[in-house]
Specification:
By secondary structure, the chain is of the alpha/beta class. It is built from 15 helices and 10 strands. The strands form 3 sheets. It has a 6-stranded mixed sheet with strand order 4-3-5-10-8-9. It has a two-stranded antiparallel sheet with strand order 1-2. Strands 6-7 form a two-stranded antiparallel ribbon.
Length: about 425
């Protein structure tokens, strides 16, 4: 998993069970799983590095995609507004049944005459214009209570995923021209007032391809949402996280796909849109420093978040191949099971051509030759016809020479029976004479 994500970052999953023993980690020498410092780039001249700042511990949190999706699913329900059908919808007519004896259903029917509506069925959920079955109510359970600690864990995981280029690229962001992740810019970015200046700054930071991707993704929404004030859909671009708003929100708000967020009010719905973490985040220096102050470390806890500690990884070493192939694990495993001996099913050579070829080598060529002999005009067909003609002519000559008159086989055979019959008749005649 760590190799798939492109770093040694620990991925939190269930402990691995081997032969009744739970292996939590391979006790190998600990190694660095992230860079200790991050470069800070000048917002107006991104090619220059102003300084370096330490990497916050929250960006080294274990990755929990299952937790992010669960929290996102529940939190996203809390902005819904109650909606239902009216209590009287479908029942606002003085309808009554016609009763029996008129060869029609006993469903209530609209009164009056002279219009198409008169006599039409009403009230029933199977009737046009009638009430619906089990009508929706406004007191449905629209919102979900979510555990605060779980929400904080999900935000920490989303922040950690935003610092891994493979996950950011897997989400669809174009970061080929970005210098490094996490991308930290000097605090001058917070003082930008104009949108034009903000766009130029983002392009200098390497976001031109990302901004163009967002523009090209604008499409008309499929479905009835296009009639309900949400006509277009568009991909999400970079998220700019700031510490103090000195004009950055106003400057960034009209750039398609670009969103802003205060570091003290980070929202999972923005960090992991659709429940998929790995959003491209641009930090200001003040926000990046404050991030470390808010979440602290594994030992100190989170100073600005009451009773909260960063999630710890389930495994110290995420190299599963090394764990499985280690001596400690292999020594307690059962030996490999040998597969039972299997016998091939007997095949009918008269139906299976391959089996016939094994028993009678050359059968395939012989079958092909027979097929060609049946094709009109082929060389094989002509050769077979000539051979047959020669064979028939030789048979005729043999019969003419050896099977003529009384010398034929059949007549010779019948003469033997005639001699026996004649002898029997003579014997009978002698017996009669004696009498």
């Amino acid at each position: 998993l760590a190799q798939a994500f492109g770093s040694g970052r620990t991925v939190a999953y269930l402990p691995v069970l081997f032969a009744g023993a739970v292996v939590l980690a391979c006790r190998a020498p600990k190694m660095a799983t992230a860079r200790p410092v991050v470069s800070v780039y000048q917002f107006d001249t991104p090619t220059e590095k102003a300084e370096t700042v330490p990497m916050p511990h929250v960006l080294m949190s274990p990755l929990r995609p299952d937790l992010v999706r669960y929290i996102h699913t529940n939190v996203s329900k809390n902005k819904r507004q109650a909606i239902s059908v009216g209590a009287k919808v479908g029942y606002e007519t003085a309808a009554s049944s016609w009763g029996t004896g008129r060869a029609v259903a006993r469903v209530p029917r609209a009164p009056g005459g002279g219009t198409h509506r008169a006599g039409q069925g009403t009230f029933g959920n199977m009737c046009r214009g009638g009430g619906m079955f089990n009508p929706t109510k406004t007191w449905r359970r629209w919102h979900r209570r979510v555990n605060v600690t779980q929400k904080r864990h999900a935000v920490a995981t989303a922040l950690a995923a935003s610092s891994l280029p493979p996950l950011v690229m897997a989400r669809g962001h174009r970061i080929g021209e970005v210098a490094e992740l996490p991308l930290v810019v000097s605090d001058g970015l917070e003082s930008i007032q104009k949108t034009k200046q903000a766009v130029e700054t983002l392009k200098k930071l390497g976001c031109s391809e990302e901004l163009q991707r967002v523009l090209d993704s604008k499409k008309v929404r499929a479905g009835k949402g296009k009639m309900r004030n949400r006509r277009y859909t568009m991909r999400r671009g970079p998220l700019v996280v700031y510490s103090e708003d000195n004009g950055i929100v106003r400057a960034m708000r009209n750039i398609p796909g670009v969103e802003t967020a205060n570091v003290s009010r980070l929202n999972l719905l923005k960090l992991a849109p659709g429940g998929n973490f790995g959003r491209f985040v641009i930090w200001t220096k003040g926000a990046f420093k404050k991030l470390g102050e808010m979440y602290g470390s594994l030992k100190s806890g989170a100073p600005l978040k009451k009773n909260y500690h960063l999630p710890r990884p389930q495994m110290e070493n995420a190299d599963l191949d090394r764990i499985i192939n280690s001596t400690e694990v292999q020594s307690v495993l059962r030996p490999k099971l040998e597969a039972p001996k299997k016998f091939e099913m007997k095949r009918n050579a008269l139906k299976n051509k391959a089996e016939m070829e094994k028993l009678n080598p050359g059968s395939t060529e012989e079958r092909e030759l027979r097929r060609k002999c049946r094709e009109q005009g082929s060389a094989e067909q002509k050769a077979a016809a000539a051979s047959k003609k020669t064979r028939v002519q030789a048979s005729k000559e043999h019969n003419k020479k050896h099977k003529k008159g009384d010398d034929s086989f059949y007549k010779t055979l019948m003469k033997a029976f005639e001699a026996k019959a004649k002898a029997a008749e003579e014997k009978e005649a002698e017996g009669e004479d004696d009498e």
